[in-house]
Design a protein that fits this description.
heterodimer, A: alpha/beta, 2 domains, four-stranded antiparallel beta sheet, B: abc type-2 transporter like fold, four-stranded mixed beta sheet, 6% strand, elongated
């Protein structure tokens, strides 16, 4: 096990940020913590990277206890906080060199690990970090977190505030790093990214709702979901919520995800109901369950 | 050790790239020394003097001429009545009103005795006291002259012998105010700038989030602290050197004592200031907060340092408080070494107290650093 967490709890004054959480991450696994803002993701990261003591429970990272062996852990993990936190007034190269030096290594020694990423920012290596674009900053931060060849990589919301193209690239980079044997724990509020992880833990209010592979988690969803669309989205949601047999109604992109209480639900019935409510251009079609649907169901 | 060296190197790079910091380090000391040393003076000059001459004789005019001749007084007006003079005083047009009574000359000649009325604006009590002394000196001078003209040969026998004292001023022969102020302002400069910069520096890492990144690296806390503070220790010496050069070149301040001793003492004094900076940054989250707290302490320390007002004239409890003021010791040491040529044994009490302060302050700072992170 690369990371194993047992019954960890952490309370700040009267807010319970993390409530009796346990999970294991296998070696070389890409594990995702998925949950909304304030779910306790960052607190878990801070506990695992030895920045914070848990009130209760124990955690092992790369075979070191987070409290007893915190010094060893710091040599073997890479951490990329959600907020860009490198020296903005040092250049790209200086930042990388600085972090290499304080980990007692050099850029050359571990160059093969960061090469894929570093070549993309190398043209800007004399530019100050503060003057880089968002995507570049994030690549630099990843390089700095990798420069000492960590066994475990912690990425706290690495793609928040990053454009879709860079997000996609970033996940491809993570997949490549995973192939090199690095265990990765990543958190994200984006449900679409969850599908890219090996396993995910859905978190809300400091509690884990479910842990499984993205494929399995989706299967746990008890109902058949339908995409519903009419000309007036707002009115549609109101109509569906007034429909006596509705189970859940959530807007989802250009559609509304609808589920029914009955097992023998017939879409034509709903179609007729909507027609009676003066809706036009009605589309009702079955759709695949997504992790977001599962999360909404579990978080109910 | 290598890590510390690298942090120091990084720190210097950042300082020299910070557009706000460079002027603070190099321009501010120059301005502060030049402006403050010239402006912060207790010499009272250009006193707005007015008079009411009810006598209008050659005697009264001779007295007024004395005031005209003095460099301290600007004779601004001559009022016909006390009422008008009082309202001018109320408006702030005059500082001093001298009223010469009717029959001033006659009484002086006949009774050898007369009274003058002097009104002084005493909102600034210290200034009023000094003005009073100046006026008395002029009146006495006038009195002596008057005696000479009035004296009858027969009186000579009964005249008492005059006792006069001749004063010699040690350590600052010409009573040059700048000689007194420059070493003190040099202290102010070294203290303020090092405290502000070091206080803001660690908070800055907190503010931009790099402290968290540093905390997950194998860097030891003491390495980090030393690496962060050492550059400001050096900058403190830089400031002292710039200040000493300015005071020698521009103000020609005497430096009688051993400069090496000044640097030696400063080395320990700076430790106190850096410890304070670290202590402040442990309890603040933003540079702004750190700045406000540093200001608060600096203002109290400076006003109670004996730099501008003598400690001996403070109330007893305030004098006791100044014992805890590191700036006081530095001001004393600077004046002692530069102006009196004091050696190590002379400044030993101040040195020991500063050393103790340095140990306590840094101990507290390191303890609170551990506690808060």
């Amino acid at each position: 096990m690369s990371i194993s967490v047992h019954n960890i709890s952490k309370t700040f004054k009267d807010v319970t940020a993390v409530n009796n959480i346990s999970f294991d991450v296998k070696e070389g696994e890409l594990f995702g913590l998925i949950g909304p803002d304030g779910a306790g993701k960052t607190t878990i990261f801070r506990i695992l990277t030895t920045l914070l003591f848990a009130d209760k429970g124990e955690a092992i990272v790369a075979n070191y206890d987070v409290i007893k062996d915190y010094k060893s852990i710091r040599n073997h993990v890479g951490y990329m906080p959600g907020k860009f936190s490198l020296y903005q007034d040092l250049t790209v190269e200086e930042n990388l060199e600085f972090f290499a030096t304080i980990f007692g290594t050099t850029i050359e020694k571990n160059y093969d690990l960061i090469k894929d990423i570093y070549v993309q920012i190398e043209p800007f290596k004399t530019r100050r970090a503060g003057k880089l674009s968002g995507g570049m900053k994030q690549k630099l931060a990843l390089c700095c977190a990798l420069i000492h060849k960590p066994k475990v990589l912690f990425l706290d919301e690495p793609t928040t505030g990053v454009d879709p193209v860079s997000r996609k690239e970033f996940w491809e980079m993570l997949k490549r790093l995973q192939k090199k044997g690095i265990t990765i724990l990543v958190s994200t509020p984006y449900m679409d990214e969850a599908a890219l992880c090996d396993r995910i833990a859905l978190i809300q209010d400091g509690k884990i709702l479910e842990i499984d592979t993205p494929q399995e988690i989706v299967k746990h969803y008890p109902k058949k979901i339908y995409n519903v669309k009419t000309d007036n989205m707002y009115k549609l949601i109101e109509c569906l919520k007034s429909y006596e047999h509705h189970y859940s109604v959530y807007p989802f992109g250009e559609f509304v995800h609808y589920t029914d209480k009955r097992d023998d639900f017939n879409p034509n019935e709903l179609h007729r109901f909507l027609e009676e409510m003066d809706a036009v251009n009605i589309i009702i079609q079955p759709t695949e369950t997504t992790i977001e649907d599962t999360f909404m169901e579990l978080a109910k | 050790m290598k890590t510390i060296g690298y942090i120091i190197q990084k720190e210097f790079k950042q300082i020299f790239r910070n557009k706000g910091m460079l002027p603070i380090i190099f321009i501010l000391p120059l301005l502060q020394l030049v402006i403050l040393s010239n402006a912060a003076t207790f010499e009272i000059k250009n006193i707005k003097f007015s008079y009411i001459d009810n006598d209008n004789t050659s005697f009264s005019r001779a007295l007024i001429d004395k005031f005209e001749a003095s460099t301290y007084f600007n004779v601004v007006s001559n009022f016909p009545s006390e009422k008008i003079a009082s309202s001018a005083m109320l408006k702030g047009e005059v500082d001093v009103i001298l009223e010469i009574p009717h029959y001033f000359e006659r009484d002086l000649l006949k009774d050898k005795k007369t009274d003058l009325s002097v009104i002084i604006n005493a909102i600034d009590g210290a200034a009023a006291g000094v003005e009073n002394v100046y006026i008395n000196q002029i009146v006495q001078g006038f009195n002596k002259n008057a005696q000479a003209t009035l004296i009858q040969p027969s009186d000579l026998i009964n005249q008492p012998k005059n006792i006069s004292s001749i004063t010699s001023f040690w350590y600052n022969e010409t009573l040059n105010y700048k000689t007194f102020m420059v070493p003190g302002i040099l202290v102010l400069l070294v203290t303020m700038i090092t405290l502000f910069l070091s206080g803001m520096n660690i908070v800055r890492e907190k503010e931009i989030g790099t402290l968290e990144q540093m905390n997950v690296t194998p860097i030891r806390k003491h390495e980090f602290i030393i690496g962060k503070l050492f550059p400001f220790w050096i900058i403190g010496f830089g400031l002292l050197t710039i200040g000493l050069i300015i005071s020698k070149v521009i103000f020609n301040t005497p430096i009688i004592g051993n400069l090496g001793l000044v640097y030696f003492y400063t080395a320990f004094y700076l430790l106190v200031i850096l410890g304070m900076g670290l202590f402040i940054s442990n309890f603040t989250d933003t540079q702004q907060q750190a700045m406000f707290i540093a200001w608060f302490f600096v203002v109290i320390f400076i006003l109670m340092s004996g730099l501008f007002t003598p400690i001996e004239s403070m109330p007893k409890w305030a004098q006791n408080l100044t014992e805890f003021n590191p700036i006081k010791y530095f001001v004393e040491v600077m004046r002692m070494v530069m102006l009196k040529g004091a050696d190590f044994n002379d400044i030993l009490p101040q040195f020991l107290k500063t050393l103790g302060y340095a140990i306590i302050m840094n101990g507290l700072a390191v303890w609170s650093y551990k506690k808060t992170s």
